[in-house]
């Protein structure tokens, strides 16, 4: 059986650093599109929890568009948390990042209650148990009527973009437990935890934004 590298990691790209903040090339491309989808879907004064915040650029973009919300970023990775926390010192509503491993039982008890749980580009670059932990935790964390927002590439059977199939192969070569997830599998997982897929939004570079809603 293949040896599996430790679960911690996880930047697939070279990130630049300035003033304590990290900058990822992918975030320069997708922070605006993600902000434009997510910001209008958050309720007034929304409490947002983010899993796998990375550099914190998505949090910054949405908080700048929605100064009424509070956003708690989290990550496994020390450098990511330091970067998001550096942004928190400059952006209203953005809190210092906390350490959360979404694969651990009970992670959701730390942040308390949320109106939205956000997770971008994590579930394909981590074992499936992370997606399972995310959905399980969301069932307790997210208030009735609240949402889970996922962003990233997904497999959609014959309709899957060739670039996402190639990405799936390269992820599995890096770690056999990683891989682009099937939209059906992810939807089924969240359905088993009381969330319905409300919106599937096509994003640049064959990514999707998915909005799952917990019924009132
Ligand atoms: C590819 S990066 C994405 C970062 C950012 N969300 C973005 O879209 O640019 C994946 C992030 O997930 C985090 N991560 C990996 N496994 C995790 C886990 N089990 N729980 C929480 N975060 C995790 C990594 O530390 C990393 O920052």
Give the name of the CATH architecture. 3-Layer(aba) Sandwich
Number of strands: 10
Helix content: 25-40%
Any ligands, ions or cofactors bound here, and which? S-adenosylmethionine
What oligomeric assembly is this protein in?
single chain
Number of domains in the coordinates?
Answer: 1
Could you name the ranges where pLDDT drops below 50 across 5 or more consecutive residues?
Answer: 1-9
Which class of secondary structure composition applies to the elements? alpha/beta
Q: Could you tell me the CATH topology label.
A: Rossmann fold
Query: What coarse outline follows from CA principal-axis ratios?
Result: globular
Output the CATH homologous superfamily. Vaccinia Virus protein VP39
User: Averaging pLDDT over every residue, what do you get?
Assistant: 94
The largest sheet has its strands arranged as 4-3-5-6-10-9
What is Rg?
16 Å
The fraction of residues assigned to DSSP E strands is 15-25%
């Amino acid at each position: 059986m293949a040896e599996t590298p430790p679960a911690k990691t996880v930047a697939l790209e070279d990130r630049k650093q300035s003033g304590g903040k990290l900058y990822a090339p992918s975030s320069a491309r997708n922070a605006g599109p993600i902000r434009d989808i997510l910001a209008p879907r958050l309720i007034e004064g929304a409490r947002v929890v983010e899993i796998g915040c990375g550099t914190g650029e998505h949090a910054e973009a949405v908080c700048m568009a929605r100064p009424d919300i509070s956003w708690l970023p989290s990550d496994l990775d020390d450098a990511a948390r330091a970067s998001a926390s550096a942004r928190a010192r400059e952006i209203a509503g953005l809190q210092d990042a906390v350490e959360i491993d979404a694969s651990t039982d009970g992670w959701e008890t730390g942040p308390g209650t949320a109106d939205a749980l956000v997770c971008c580009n994590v579930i394909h670059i981590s074992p499936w148990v992370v997606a399972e932990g995310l959905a399980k935790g969301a069932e307790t964390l997210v208030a009735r009527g609240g949402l889970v927002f996922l962003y990233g590439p997904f497999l959609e059977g014959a309709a899957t973009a060739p670039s996402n199939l190639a990405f799936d192969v390269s992820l599995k070569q890096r770690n056999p437990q990683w891989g682009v997830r099937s939209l059906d599998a992810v939807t089924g997982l969240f359905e088993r935890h009381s969330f319905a897929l409300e919106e599937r939004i096509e994003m640049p570079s064959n990514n999707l934004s998915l909005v799952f809603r917990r019924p009132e």
